[in-house]
Design brief:
single chain, 621 residues, alpha+beta, Jelly Rolls, CBS-domain, Four Helix Bundle (Hemerythrin (Met), subunit A), five-stranded antiparallel beta sheet, four-stranded antiparallel beta sheet, 44% helix, globular, disordered N terminus
Length: 621
């Protein structure tokens, strides 16, 4: 029987006596009535199909409607006066449930834009609509920095607000300060023979001139930052944001080849200072105590929440979140040296695991090590570096990066060694790939220098790359070890959920989702002698080296991005609910569309694991 549209005969009475709609005035209710559209629906009719609940709000005037999750077999009965759909059904169920009439029913429909406008005028109504979009001003689950963070995909070129202000390096400090005051700018560029020479900011004038009583008639080149870091005009805003966060800088020249296009500042990128990566990193470097760093580290979850709401890619989110970990680590190193004195020999503090790969989220432990100069002498220097590494590792733990359960940290004697010892570690792991050695390689083949003499690590990585490139015996063992992490797909391609008491009926997005891709990319990189650590970048470079086809590498990158975004969104939802973030994703959080793509992503990984297994079959014997 076709559906018939009827005028709302009982709507006025329902609105007047309703718990929610009675909150607004009678005049507002009368004005609202024409916006509702009433519909009579037959028994057993699907009112809104799965994935359609978000399209409109339904108010039940008569009959009974069931909300059903067809995949999980869940059902909720709704009575007259109850609402469902846009705004009313919780975010957790909005995309995965459907509405079905269990008796002949009458439903009054309201379009999303009408509800949003109404909540803007009557802020108290928003309380009753928990799934209003995050960009609705009345929804306090929203994130104020989202608009700025959407610039992640915007070209830097489009953010330049004025022509570059340039001066000769020979210009006097006083003349530069006067020009900056008159033009109301915070920086100028120094140019000589059409080439960028340096950069001067208002901070330079304050710290290097006024504070030190410098003669203002001297040339401005005396206080300038020479050969400043730059960003290409066609780069995404994300790249500038990341560079500024990593290096704690607030001004960056924008270049089109050798031509200067203008200047970009942190305020051009984001106005939400308290949770943007740049300002968070800036606050970190200002801290003089561990307590101060602990307070700031608590804002990382909110930063990830904002990035998720802004639909930032998993790739960019990983880099941004990791840049904050790097900043905290470096600041802890500074504080440790202030406490213990300067290091007696050169060293480099090295991140391992997800930090090394720039793939951290708000849920991360710490993996790190120390590579010391070969001038290191245990008798003379051992006590210092033991205390130093413990200070930093304990500080990271206090900031929320828990101690590595496997003790793969610089505070462990085994992982705080001279370069020559590290070279011997890697040689043995490659030549004698026993189970424990293979486990260690999964951590320590992903390394990135954080602070100190980076050449110590660079030299080491080049040696390792030469040892692993084309080493079929070692690579066969690495493949065998990698295949211990399998995607959660059953025999007939269905998703298999975790069983047991801890995190039942969930998907472990880390160990069965992302780790299999990380492991594949690591094998490709080792086979190609590639030294980059980030998984996305490893896949790209390894395909260029011929270790994996371009199509397979592209499929894995897409799967990595999709799975990464699901994990980040899951953790963002947990943060919004004041729940500690984890990696265990309930299937009911996903829409039908997402579940379908999840199966495809797992299938891609499963297929390429099989290809790699066949390639190195028999290589261990």
């Amino acid at each position: 029987m076709p559906r018939e549209i009827h005028p709302p005969k009982t709507l006025a009475h329902t609105l007047a006596s309703h718990r929610v709609w009675s909150l607004i005035s009678e005049a507002d209710r009368v004005a609202l009535e024409p916006s509702f559209q009433s519909e009579s629906i037959d028994t057993a009719t699907v009112v809104l199909a799965q994935g359609q609940l978000h399209t409109r709000l339904g108010l039940i005037l008569g009959g009974e409607v069931n909300l059903i999750d067809p995949d999980l077999g869940l059902k909720i009965k709704l009575q007259p006066g109850e609402m469902f759909g846009f705004g009313a059904t919780t975010q957790l169920q909005l995309t995965t449930w459907q509405a079905k009439a269990s008796s002949r029913s009458v439903i009054a429909w309201l379009q999303p834009e009408v509800l949003i406008a109404l909540c803007l005028r009557h802020g108290e109504l928003a309380y009753f609509f928990p799934s209003l979009p995050v960009n609705t001003p009345t929804n306090h689950m929203g994130t104020p920095g989202d608009e700025a963070l959407n610039l992640l995909s915007t070209p830097i070129r489009s953010l330049i607000k004025r022509e570059p202000i340039t001066l000769s390096p020979a210009t006097s400090i006083q003349a530069v300060a006067t020009l900056m005051r008159d033009l109301r700018v915070s920086s100028v560029l120094l140019v000589e023979q059409a080439h960028l020479f340096g950069l001067v900011t208002d901070r330079d004038l304050r710290n290097r001139v006024v504070a030190q009583g410098m003669d203002i008639s001297r040339p401005v080149s005396d206080i300038a930052t020479l050969a400043p870091m730059t960003v290409a005009a066609n780069s995404p805003a994300f790249e500038a944001l990341l560079l500024m966060a990593r290096h704690n800088i607030h001004h960056m020249p924008v270049m089109d080849g050798q031509r200067i296009l203008g200047m970009i500042t942190t305020t051009d990128l984001t106005e939400q200072h308290s949770t943007s990566a740049v300002y968070l990193a800036g606050d970190i470097y200002k801290q003089t105590t561990l307590d101060g760093l602990k307070q700031i580290s608590g804002r990382i979850k909110q930063l990830q929440q904002h990035l998720a709401a802004a639909d930032a890619s998993a790739y960019s989110t990983g880099h941004i979140i990791t840049s904050i970990t790097d900043a905290i680590t470096i600041r802890l190193i500074h504080l440790a040296e202030a406490e213990l004195g300067p290091a007696p020999v050169d060293y480099v503090w090295v991140a391992a695991g997800s930090q090394a790969r720039n793939e951290q989220t708000a849920k991360s432990d710490q993996d790190n090590c120390l590579v010391l100069d070969d001038a290191y002498n245990e008798t003379l220097h051992g006590a210092y570096f033991k205390a130093f590494s413990k200070w930093v590792c304990d500080g990271l733990a206090a900031c929320g990066y828990i101690h590595c359960p496997g003790e793969m940290m610089a505070m462990t004697d085994q992982w705080r060694q001279p370069q020559r010892v590290w070279a011997e570690y890697f040689r043995k792991w490659v030549e004698q790939p026993k189970p424990k050695a293979l486990m260690l390689t999964c951590v320590f083949f992903d390394l990135r220098a954080i602070h100190g003499k980076t050449e110590l690590l660079d030299d080491l990585r080049q040696q390792v790359a030469q040892q692993t490139k084309g080493n079929s015996l070692f690579l066969a063992h690495m493949v065998s070890n990698a295949l211990k992490h399998r995607p959660p797909l059953g025999m007939f391609g269905q998703i298999t959920l975790q069983k047991g008491k801890e995190h039942p009926n969930t998907i472990d997005m880390k160990h069965t989702g992302l780790v299999p891709i990380v492991d594949l990319a690591r094998v490709y990189a080792l086979a190609a002698g590639v030294t980059v650590a980030n998984t996305h970048d490893r896949l790209e470079v390894s395909s260029q080296a011929g270790e994996v086809s371009e199509q397979a590498a592209r499929d894995l990158r897409d799967a990595l991005e999709f799975l990464g975004k699901l994990r980040i969104a899951h953790q963002a939802r947990q943060t919004a609910q004041d729940t500690p973030p984890d990696n265990y994703l309930p299937l009911e959080e996903l829409s039908n569309f997402e579940r379908s793509h999840l199966k495809e992503a797992f299938s891609v990984v499963q297929t390429l694991q099989g290809v790699l297994q066949q390639r190195y079959a028999g290589g261990r014997f």
